Amino acid sequence: MANLSAKELDALGDQLNFEKVLCCKYQAAVQEAEDAQLKASFQQYADQHRQNFTCLLNYLR
User: Fold this and answer.
1) pTM for this structure?
2) Which residues contact 1 (CB under 8 A, 6 or more apart)?
């Protein structure tokens, strides 16, 4: 991992939190939606934000 400044680490931390919140919100929407197509879209968005979160976290390790 490259040497990151405190400001860069803060920005990455903020992005991690953002991705986690979006994943949780879309996952909740999956549970609430009744339309199958809408559920599938929400699940796709949740999965993408989970993948973004994991990618950022692995970068920081």
Assistant:
1) 0.88
2) 59, 60, 61
Please count the other Cβ atoms lying within 10 Å of the Cβ belonging to residue 42: 20
Going residue by residue through the chain (61 aa), what tens digit of pLDDT does each one get? 568 899 999 999 999 999 999 999 999 999 999 999 999 999 999 999 999 999 999 988 8
Query: What's at 30, amino acid-wise?
Result: V
d(CA 52, CA 46): 10
What one-character DSSP code corresponds to residue 51? H
Token readout for 20 is 């986690």
Contact 19/39 with Cβ under 8 angstroms?
no
> CB atoms < 10 A from the CB of 2, how many?
5
